[in-house]
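Question:
When you can, review this sequence-structure pair and walk me through the tokens.
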Amino acid sequence: MQVMKWSVIALAVAAGTSQMAVASSQSESNGFIEDSSFNIFNRVLYMNRDYRNGGENGAHATKPKGERNGYREETGLGIRLLFESGFTQGTVGVGVDAHSLSSIKLDSGNGRFGTGQFAQTDDGSGDDTQSEVGGAIKFRVSDTVLKHGNMMIDTPVFSTDDSRILPEVATGTSLVSNEIEGLELTAGRFTAISDQVQTGRDSIVIEDFNKDPVKLKSINLVGASYSFTDNFSGALFAADTDDVFKKYYGNLNYNLPLAEEQSLNFDLNYYKTDYDKKTYGEDLDNKIWSLAAAYNIGAHTLTLAHQRSSGDIGYDYGIDGGGTIYLANSVQFSDFNGADERSWQARYDLDMSSYGVPGLKFMTRYITGDNISTSSDREGKEHEWNFETRYTVQEGAAKDLMFRVRHAIWRANSAYNADYSSDVNDTRLIIEYPLDVL
């Protein structure tokens, strides 16, 4: 249920390539204070999930079923203070990163709880305020950075989620190297990850086959992203989540310029997951891939995508981060990642900059999936329609202030409703305001 991270690998590689120069990043360091930054990021999120056809808000289990609302509705404010120091000068540069995350409940209530923005209190409502702080120490040699502590991380096999007012935070060690032009090498070991609504450093929990709680023990990951040319890139990643699963990922991204203001992009993503018998009760596996083709002409982009899952069960993630799903059909509500599921997407984007309104963008997409294996042995089917409008202020005192409206309509047949969710309309109003203080 994440925003599609389409072409993230390609963009990361391109960024790494553009930073390469004769001198290394460390040799050009201006100092611990001189290269520091301090940012305040504010996000307001109103979220409403309206369950249809008699569906109910099962998140409020303290109420009798007949008294539960048929929707979840909450509004929250998230405030992030992010400090990133520069590196000290010399062969080995030393620096620190620090953050403070705070959530403030603006609207919630007994019976409406459950949008994933707040922890739940004893009376069934959302917690009024929450906060956590964290930091990491970092070292840089040439163009290689080693970081240890608390951090937000974004890789295809371990990615902290940022789909609510506050992000998940991982605890561990990461190593990122850009010593060779066009090549980015990544490695890491993480031993804890915090939920978006919990302040504990190790608060994400899944259930094993006996319904016992399982937390992240450790995850080890390695990966490489390489830009073969300016228009062609690839990536390979692997991760071992102790006692849960081993996950492998591959990506190929190719951009074909056609004419002035015209291009064609192809993005292929592939996961193979081997599930651990200790948690899942038996040796299981899943293979899932997606291929997206996007045609851009001026202000218009048309995307077609196909995604297919196979193996013993569907693609699973979460204990390795709520953002660990780099697939084309992972959209606002559903990921279209069920067992044996096949799904297709048609998407249209419009950038109004070409029509004299810079900062205003529209998007709509439709995804349909079928052939889903369900617990009832009947074929599961689902489909989802998304609409999004986004406007970002371009100049003045409110520069970079963003307003965003997202709406999803998700429907499924009764076989998949029973396994996944009641039919739902999902509406989100988002305001974001980043402030660069330093």
Notes: The two ends are 34 Å apart (CA to CA).
